[in-house]
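Holo prediction. Input below; ligand is zinc ion.
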Amino acid sequence: MPSPSIPVFDGHNDVLLRLFMERSATPVSDFMDGNDKGQLDFPRAREGGLAGGLFAIFVPSPRQPRGGTDGAAQAAAADAAPPVLELASAQRTVLAMAATLFRIERESEGRVRVCGSVGEIRACVDAGVLAPVLHLEGAEAIDEDFQMLEVLHKAGLKSLGPVWSRSNIFGHGVPFSFPASPDIGPGLTDAGKALVKACNELRILIDLSHLNEKGFWDVAAASDAPLVASHSNAHAICPHARNLTDRQLDAIRDSDGLVGVNYAVNFVRPDGRRDSNTPLDQVVDHVEYLINRLGEDRVGLGSDFDGAAMPNDLSSVAALPNLVAAMRARQYGDALIAKICSENWLRVLGKTWRQPDAATDRTRGA
Ligand code: ZN
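Structure of the complex:
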């Protein structure tokens, strides 16, 4: 039997994309009741111990809808670079996916609450309420005057990746190449550097996953926040262009940032194959490597549920206790497991958002 579920705050999932792509007339009940599709819904989140996480809004590329797997994207990327998306159509999709999340919250009868502070997330975890945080994966819907950014921020946007693995007006994503260095293509545009400054000002987390290496260094130079890659792995183990080199990891460490370990098998396996017959021990290999490189306070989880091919023993969010069991098998103690499963994410979010941690607050008040 797997160990009882412990709370996980996860750095990345694509359930909103799945619900959007399914074009169901009932996305709210599909999520709340589960519809036996995909890898993440409310019942299975409860079962597996998912307490909350960054819920991504992602605008699929026309002609090659991501349809839910990085593997499909990988195959498509071999043919042609995804086209640059048009602003108005990207904005329509972003509004549709954000609306779905807000409707889930409103119709959840208190079981889901969209969070914007670490205090709110902790209160949800304590009360058994699922705590999504709004994340934008690729800024195609953001105009150069940042009007949409301002509005999304007011609507609760707390995290943003300037690019997905394609180009936009802000920069250039890293292609799905294996084996390959992430040093492919030019860095951020001037608009991209301005976006970094705007996110700093609004205290929106800037997600480095999907940026190419030059873009990574441009963010590192321009940002005043900890460097965070929400769903990426160690390039030294799996030399995929989506993974982080030791130099990048050292910069993340020096900024007191965080890496969320991605369970996608093609980012985990040393051979880069999209083979679900991948032992969870190989996921823990990345956790271990990152702990050694970053320190045990700067490693979290970033599943990619509903966005990638998962290992057989982690085929849905309900199986999260299997991952915890794999960490226990490495003799990780309760304190380290709590850090990796949630505490490190809450620490870096608090630092990035510059909001006092509710627990720290209570301590100070006492
Ligand atoms: Zn992604």
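The longest strand covers residues 50-57. That is the main takeaway for now.
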